[in-house]
Each structure stands twice: as C-alpha cells, then as structure tokens.
Amino acid sequence: MTRSLLPAHRLRWGAAAWILGVLQYFVCQVVVAAQWKTSYSWTRNFLSDLGNTSCGTFTPPHGQAAYVCSPAHTTMNVSFIACGLLAAAGMVLLRPLWAQQRTVTVAFWLWIVSAAGKVLVGLVPENTDVALHTLGALNMPLGGLAVLLLSRRAAGLVQPWRRVGLALGRIGLIGATLTITGQFTTHLPWGAGLSERLASYPANAWMLLIAALALSRAHAAGPDSASAQPTAHHSFH
After folding, report:
1. Which H, E and C letters describe the chain, residue by residue?
2. What is the maximum span of the chain, computed from C-alpha positions, in angstroms?
3. For residue range 90-145, what is the model confidence (pLDDT) as tens digits?
4. 91-121 b/e (C-beta count within 10 Å ≥ 16 → b)
5. Is the C-alpha dihedral spanning 237, 204, 143, 191 positive or negative?
6. Which residues contact residue 105 at a Cβ distance below 8 angstroms, ignoring those fewer than 6 apart?
7. The predicted structure's pLDDT at residue 62
8. Stretch 225-229: mean pLDDT, rounded?
C-alpha cells in the first residue's frame, strides 16, 4: 500500500470516529448505570438492560427473569446507535489500511453488518421486540470474527500488535459462546453480564488499537500525504 493512497486526513477522521464511538459508549454505560433504580450489576445484568424502556420484570429468551429499571434508557439507546454508526464510518475511512484481499472484503462486510446490528440494538430495545433485538445482538460474534480475520491475515501488523489483535478476536468469540451458553444454563460460575462484556469489549479495545496505529501513520505521512508522489511500498505495521 503506497502512502499516497492513505491521506493523513482520512486516517485522522477514521481514527477519531472509532475513538469517539468507544469513549461515548463507555461513558454512557457508567452514567446510565449510575441512575439505575436498583443496583445495576456489571457481571449479572446485560448491556441491553441499560436500554430497557420499562420498569419491571424482564425475562430474556431462555434466561432468568430479573427486575430491570433504567431511567436513562434513552441515553443508552442513542449511545448504541452512535457506536454502530461510528464503527461503520471508521471502517469505511480506514479500509485502505488493509490490502485488497478476499479475506479483508469478507471481514469488512462482517464489520459493517456488526455495526448495523449495534444500531438495531439501540433502535429496538430488548423489551419492545426481543427477537429483533436479539438479531441485532449478533453484532458481538460478527465483530469478534471480523477482528480475528483482520488481525490474522490482512492487517499487516507487526507481530506484537498482531498477537494482541488475535487475542482480542478470540476473547470476543469465546465471550459470545459463553453468552449463548449462559442463556441455556444457570451453572456458569459468573453472571451473564460478564460473558456478554467479554463478547463486546474486545472489539472496542481493538478499535482503539487500530485508531492509535492509524494516527501514528497519519503523523508519519504528514499533512501533504494526499498530494505526495508514490514512493516505496509500506505495509500497515
């Protein structure tokens, strides 16, 4: 990939989208959880409980009934939507960081569909249409698979960063498996909320990693990279 094809402003905007998306997502979780009518559990309650629009007992599919009451649910649902939109926008802007390969194309669309799922989670809270909301929640395994594919074959990362990306992708997929398993059993030694966070948060960490590396490339390229003449071949590492 020649640096002339990676304008610094595009890298900066893509990195900014991912950093903003992740930061607002976590800030909103803390703020909304603090306004929970009872004690919100970060290990037992689902992320989606923060966006539940009613107060009362809620029973997820194949799960256990629990009391849910999130007064600031609108804030959380807007955050879900913003996170998905910014995740998609950032991937489109940062797409040239990866080579034109079939694996990358597959991973790119997995990520876009995952981002759309996050938007769906915010548009359709769990208590309004649980089936459609659950469909949106597939953003977690899809995102984890995209991270794994991009880190494994196509990211061009040097070995330490590649290992981090692969580890994050694997943790996300393990978390997704545990989340699904937790829907059918009560014998896991931890809460379903913790499993869901293991499925969701690694992709957020990977976004920050790639954003940091993109900003590093933008700084190295300089402000005039868009008009620079092609030079040596550089991989993303």
Report:
1. CCHHHCCHHHHHHHHHHHHHHHHHHHHHHHHHHHCCCCCCCCCCCCHHHHHCCCCEEECCCCCCCEEECCCCHHHHHHHHHHHHHHHHHHHHHHHHHCCCCHHHHHHHHHHHHHHHHHHHHHHCCCCCCHHHHHHHCCHHHHHHHHHHHHHHHHCCCCHHHHHHHHHHHHHHHHHHHHHHHHCCCCCCCCCHHHHHHHHHHHHHHHHHHHHHHHHHHHHHHCCCHHHCCCCCCCCCC
2. 63
3. 999 998 888 888 888 999 999 999 999 999 999 999 999 988 998 999 999 999 99
4. bebbebbbeeeeebeebbebbbebbbbbbbb
5. positive
6. none
7. 64
8. 41
Angle at CA of residue 86, ends 84 and 89, nearest 5°? 110
User: d(Cα 31, Cα 52) in Å, to the nearest integer?
Assistant: 15
33 alpha-carbon distance from chain centroid: 19
Tokens of 181: 């398993």
- Name 174's Cβ contacts closer than 8 Å, sequence gap at least 6: 198
Q: Which of 166, 185, 139 is nearest to 21 (CA)?
A: 139
What one-letter code names the amino acid at 116?
A
Note the pLDDT tens digit of each residue in 163-209: 888 899 999 999 888 887 766 555 566 677 888 899 999 999 999 99
